[in-house]
Amino acid sequence: MIIKSLFPSVFQHLDIETFDKDTLVDYVYKQREENSEGLVRSNVGGWHSCDNYHTFDNPLNSFLMTGLKEIASIRMFKPKTTITVLQMWININNKGDYNKKHCHPNCDLSGTFWIKVPQNSGDLLFVNPSEFAEANLMDYYSEEFKDRFIVYPSFEFYPVEGRVCLWPSHLYHGVGRNDSGEDRISVAFNLNIGGSN
């Protein structure tokens, strides 16, 4: 029998070799000092910055641009494709904080890069868009089949410091509860893809 996986959701990640954790952590904490109130979006607890870090020169923007250049170099997009950053913001999750399941409308790709990831600080969780429609079917697939074709109601990735992750913006996702005694720090962003076909 031939089995193919149709219409997969493409999740990708890339580890950036030029990751300078200390510089990024220092910058993030200075930003929180300047605006300690922050925003409430998907975050339950924690600190969420404004979403304009892509609009001015800063170490977070420089790191993201390095990651996007490396991603563009693997030729997953057609030549002359443009990648536009629409928003970029900081998340600091303290002990007990997490991010509710949500999606990012009005953009093509969403992503996160991880700056500080203590042990037990929460996985990045994705919800299968067919979770409801195929719930019964997924219950009856064998574990071997599920593993081979990644057919689950949801899927978790453990964050890695210095890693940039990208996924289609329509995918519902969240970040688990931080059960460590330290802050988990990430920067999230939204992208649009364009250019000539």
Report on this structure.
The protein is of the alpha+beta class and 197 residues long. The protein has helices spanning 21-34, 59-73, 135-140, 143-149; strands at residues 12-15, 43-44, 47-48, 81-93, 98-102, 109-116, 124-127, 154-157, 163-168, 173-175, 184-195. The strands form two sheets. Strands 1-9-6-11-4-3 form a six-stranded antiparallel sheet. A five-stranded antiparallel sheet has the order 2-5-10-7-8, with no helix packed on it. The protein is globular and about 60 Å long. The N and C termini lie far apart (37 Å). The mean pLDDT is 95.
Question: Summed up, what is this model?
Answer:
The chain is of the alpha+beta class and 197 residues long.
Widest β-sheet, arrangement of strands:
1-9-6-11-4-3
Major sheet characteristics: 6 strands, antiparallel
Radius of gyration: 18 Å
Shape estimate? globular
**What's the rounded overall pLDDT mean?**
95
Helix content: 10-25%
Count of extended strands: 11
Low-confidence stretches: none
Number of helices: 4
Strand residues, percent: 25-35%
- Helices and strands, in order, run as EHEEHEEEEHHEEEE
Class from secondary-structure proportions: alpha+beta
Distance between the termini: 37 Å
Note the main attributes of this structure.
alpha+beta; 5-stranded antiparallel β-sheet; 4 helices; 6-stranded antiparallel β-sheet
What layout of secondary structure does this protein have?
Elements (H helix, E strand, L loop, with lengths): L11 E4 L5 H14 L8 E2 L2 E2 L10 H15 L7 E13 L4 E5 L6 E8 L7 E4 L7 H6 L2 H7 L4 E4 L5 E6 L4 E3 L8 E12 L2
Antiparallel strand pairs: 1-9, 2-5, 3-4, 4-11, 5-10, 6-9, 6-11, 7-8, 7-10
